[in-house]
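Model it.
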Amino acid sequence: MTSTTASVISFGCIFGGSLIGIALRSALSDRTLNSEKKDVLRLALGLITTLSALVLGLLISTAKGSYDNKRTQVKQIATNVIFVDRALKVYGPDASGVRKALQGQVAALIAQIEFSGAGSSTVRPSAQTDLSDFYRMVLQLSPRDEGQRTLKAEVLRSSLEIGRIRASTLARESTSIPVPFLVILVFWLTTLFAGFGLFATRDLLTVVALCVCALTVSTAIFLIFDMDQPLTGFMKLSIEPIRNALAVINDTP
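Modeled.
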């Protein structure tokens, strides 16, 4: 489920709940909805408000943490790419082909992240960004002295780290938020807004106010889903660090 779909469905349910509450208010008499019953309803709505606020805050915090984690991984990939290129340069002319292969791998990864998000909620690994061929090229290097052996070992270690972070960055579900969890949250919010409508007067200003409030809550749900998909969502994570790393290794002879 995309962030836009989730937020639109949530808005429809939540605002629809408030309209149902307003309709019920018109149908019920003052005798049916007396002061004692109103007090009980206010207590119930207060409980639902507290639960909904806690859950929304937890989801926003979790989604922000996931977004920040992916941003850190992008920076780590860029750092390791530059380190591997520098180590291969120090290794000597024998590693020039491996350096070219590294440039191609990084360029393919950038292209994959940039263009595979269109019409898809996930970024799937492709053969172009599979580091297996690069590993084999590094393994085929024949060190002539202890220094080259050390550099080869460091290149292999850092390359494996790049592969691990890359796999963690790209291997994503469409969303980590379970649909039943969202359904329950929207049900709570719909019930809450139905209660708001039950206490509201039937006029245009009230309807507009409830609509704005429902839009605000659905926007929060949009942010949660969008930050949970940092490489493909509206708030798409910047991969400028990897682009800068590619520019650095391309400019280094």
